[in-house]
């Protein structure tokens, strides 16, 4: 069988960059395969994806050596339109793909370019939306959809073109756990039913592997270092060496003392051998510390002193239109040094609540106080000196040409002395692992690197409360640990952390309190550990229990949550040792 995509000795260097981002890449992908491309942030995954879909060399004008072939034809000899009919791309930020004012118009865009007759176009658009479960949104605006719904609309638009290859670049980065699960289920259905070749670039490997892949291609420092079946890759340890975290349930089984070869490694929780594993886990739990010591190891104590909260909401309501409430009766307070996870499904109101914290909107009812003072008279700049905000999409924040210029922007316009500017900029660059990129053009950075840059630019301003929207999206495990170790340390200095996240492991390891939004209301304000051990509350809020909880149920443990609690305690001990090292 001939490969549908063949990459031969490919090296690529971005403009104004001294060294190649990818080098000597050789990869053949065959019709009907499902491939996962994994690697640490900055390893060249996104650049390789741009070579596959023709953005390199047609949109990025750097130096390309070697050959990329689609169906035996060099992409340098194919116009970008022809490539797009062979390789359909779904970006991690689907908003960048929207053209039409309505969902139907957007899905029809490719058909309009092909001059498909109106009646036939309507039939194809409806059929594509039915395949992704979005036909009821045909007349709505794509901008009003949740993250998961936007991904489905982008996929529907690609399906109307019917490409042979589907390329998904970090498709789960901005999705809540339930939406991510639905996306992977949808892709698996299309892969099986239509026989499409599927290439997935993703850090959340647990969700991808659970639905099966033929191979995992591992990239490190711009090169392919391994290309193996999933079980062989996981059992080899190469992913962990590269800074990629294994599925959470496998991490727990390793911690317990279970070991696997490529032949018996379970790629899903429901493949775990209960008869063999349950006694090992039960002994591990019974030989461990008691419940009180596990709780004591769970992190910082919640701040209960009499200091004024940095920010507090009192009966806040908000709607973008009269009589259409997005948030209702929201009340909470954040104390100095608290570590809080703001959780909820896509569309629950998390982004709106964040915008109210920043002063971008004012409550339609109720009040917000900052340091005990009513915030209604404060402008955005005044709030910005108290609250540092890192957006979910780094492209919405970045405005300068180079990494250094971006980090300098805030301190230069906020009265910092030259000494303070130099110290804060160097520190932010080092912490976010960007020192070697200080003179790079921002356009050459990967999504994960851009994310770290936005965090660095905010940290340089020394805020009192750090509001982070999906801080670890697109980050490999090494950068995740390094960045969160630093961010977590800020809370010990009295800086409050509020993390808007879909990453339940981040919430589990780095927050002590969880605020859960559902349909615009706070439905839970409790300890993070208590929330993650409560399956009913999670599913009722359209969140997914972690694979740790699923493992506990699979093994028929009387208290599945004890596995979570013990694992968290051991992980946090490991984190402390990691930070000291």
Automatic annotation (TrEMBL):
Limits of the ABC transporter domain: 5-246, 311-544
Matches recorded under SMART domains: AAA
Gene3D superfamilies: P-loop containing nucleotide triphosphate hydrolases
Keywords of this entry: ATP-binding, Cell membrane, Membrane, Nucleotide-binding, Repeat, Translocase, Transport
PROSITE patterns per record: ABC_TRANSPORTER_1 (PS00211), ABC_TRANSPORTER_2 (PS50893)
Pfam family, one: ABC_tran
Keyword Iron: no
Highest taxon of source: Bacteria
Keyword hit for Cytoplasm: no
Localisation: Cell membrane
Mode of membrane association: Peripheral membrane protein
Family as reported in the entry's similarity comment: Belongs to the ABC transporter superfamily.
Function: Probably part of an ABC transporter complex. Responsible for energy coupling to the transport system.
NCBIfam families reported in the protein's UniProt record: PRK13648.1
Name of this protein: DUF3744 domain-containing protein
Organism: Paenibacillus solisilvae
């Amino acid at each position: 069988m001939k490969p549908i995509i063949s990459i031969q000795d490919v090296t690529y260097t971005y403009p104004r960059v001294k060294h190649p981002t990818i080098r000597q890449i050789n990869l053949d992908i065959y019709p009907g395969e499902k491939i996962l491309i994994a690697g640490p942030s900055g390893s060249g995954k996104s650049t390789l994806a741009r070579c596959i879909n023709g953005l390199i060399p047609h949109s990025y004008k750097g130096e390309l050596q070697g050959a990329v072939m689609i169906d035996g034809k060099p992409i340098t000899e194919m116009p970008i339109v022809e490539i797009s009919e062979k390789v359909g791309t779904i970006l991690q930020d689907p908003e960048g793909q929207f053209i039409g004012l309505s969902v139907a118009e957007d899905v029809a865009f490719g058909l309009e370019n092909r001059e498909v007759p109106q009646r036939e176009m309507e039939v194809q658009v409806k059929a594509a939306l039915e395949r992704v479960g979005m036909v009821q949104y045909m007349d709505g605006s794509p901008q009003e959809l949740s993250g998961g719904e936007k991904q489905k609309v982008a996929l529907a638009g690609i399906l109307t073109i019917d490409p042979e290859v589907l390329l998904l670049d970090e498709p789960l980065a901005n999705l809540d756990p339930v939406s991510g699960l639905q996306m992977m289920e949808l892709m698996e259905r299309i892969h099986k039913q239509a026989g499409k070749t599927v290439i997935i670039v993703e850090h959340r490997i647990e969700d991808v592997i659970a639905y099966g892949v033929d191979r995992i291609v591992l990239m490190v420092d711009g090169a392919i270092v391994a290309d193996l079946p999933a079980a062989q890759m996981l059992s080899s340890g190469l992913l962990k060496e590269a800074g990629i975290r294994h599925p959470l349930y496998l991490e727990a089984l390793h911690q317990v003392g279970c070991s696997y070869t490529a032949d018996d490694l379970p790629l899903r929780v429901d493949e775990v051998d209960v008869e063999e594993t349950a006694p090992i886990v039960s002994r591990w739990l019974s030989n461990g510390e008691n419940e009180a010591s596990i709780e004591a190891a769970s992190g910082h104590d919640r701040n209960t002193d009499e200091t004024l909260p940095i920010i507090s909401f009192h009966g806040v309501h908000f709607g973008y239109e009269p009589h259409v409430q997005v948030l209702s009766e929201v009340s909470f307070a954040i104390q100095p040094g608290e570590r809080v996870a703001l959780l909820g499904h896509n569309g629950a109101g998390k982004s709106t609540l964040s915008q109210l914290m920043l002063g971008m909107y004012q409550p339609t009812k109720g009040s917000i106080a900052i340091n005990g003072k009513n915030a209604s008279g404060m402008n955005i700049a005044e709030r910005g000196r108290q609250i540092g905000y890192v957006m979910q999409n780094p492209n919405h924040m970045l405005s300068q040409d180079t990494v250094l210029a971006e980090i300098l922007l805030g301190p230069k316009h906020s009265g910092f002395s030259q000494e303070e500017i130099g110290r804060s900029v160097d520190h932010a660059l080092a912490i976010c692992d960007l020192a070697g990129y200080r003179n790079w053009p921002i356009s050459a950075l990967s999504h994960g690197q851009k994310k770290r840059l936005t965090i660095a630019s905010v940290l340089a301003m020394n805020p009192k409360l750090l509001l982070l929207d999906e801080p670890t999206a697109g980050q490999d495990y090494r950068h995740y640990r390094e960045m969160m170790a630093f961010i977590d340390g800020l809370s010990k200095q009295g800086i409050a952390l509020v993390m808007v996240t879909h990453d339940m492991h981040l919430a589990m390891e780095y927050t002590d309190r969880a605020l859960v939004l559902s349909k615009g209301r706070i439905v839970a304000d409790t300890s993070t550990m208590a929330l993650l051990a409560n399956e009913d509350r999670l599913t009722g809020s359209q969140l997914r229990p972690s694979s740790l909880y699923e493992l506990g149920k699979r093994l028929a443990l009387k208290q599945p949550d004890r596995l979570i609690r013990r694992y968290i305690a051991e992980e946090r001990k490991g984190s402390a040792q990691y930070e000291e090292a």
